[in-house]
Amino acid sequence: MTKNKTYRSIEYLFVLILLIGLSNKSLPAQGNALIVPGEEVGVLKLGNSIGFITQDLGNIEPSTVRKVEDGEIKEMWLSYKDLGLTLIFDYATKTLKRIIVLSPSLLVKGTGIHVGSKESEVLEYFKEPSKEGKTNELDYPQLGIKFIIRENERTVYAIEINAKEI
Question: Cα(142)–Cα(75) distance, rounded to whole angstroms?
């Protein structure tokens, strides 16, 4: 092997290692991140300010920023595609009010349920939803968690964390 081919192989190996490292992004300080219904996802806690949350995320930038309005701006959505998360902030108070989880690597604490779990597993653990909703939602507002179900596969597509309703 010539010297140029050796350097080229090392360059390819370095690029491959770099790409693998970048593709495995996770929440900071979150080795075993859990979804805690009505409270948090890993280090991201409902009620925290946008400044505190962005500090927790470090230099990870959102892939999409969207403002939801109804005459006036009500919410700001920050989507982190690489993390499989969307953070929804109250626009007036700038506090985190909902988290949508799309990543199958995050588990609901104490259940093993995650994005990709079967609807029957959710029903087995959480029982019947307490709130009537769409046919593709299992909503448990007293716990602060909602499961969005893929209609054709009957698997969890997304998990939404909200403040608990009393």
Answer: 22
Query: What DSSP element (H or E) covers 15?
Result: helix 3-23
Where helices occur in 24-118 by DSSP H, the ranges are 50-57
Report d(CA 162, CA 111) in Å as an integer. Answer: 18
Overall CATH class of domain 34-162? alpha beta
Contact between 113 and 125 under an 8 Å Cβ cutoff? The reply is yes
Q: For residues 150 and 136, give the distance between their C-alpha atoms in angstroms, rounded to a whole number.
A: 7
- pTM score of the predicted model: 0.79
pLDDT for 48-88, tens place per residue? 999 989 888 887 888 888 888 777 889 999 999 989 999 99
Q: What residues does each domain of the chain span?
A: 34-162
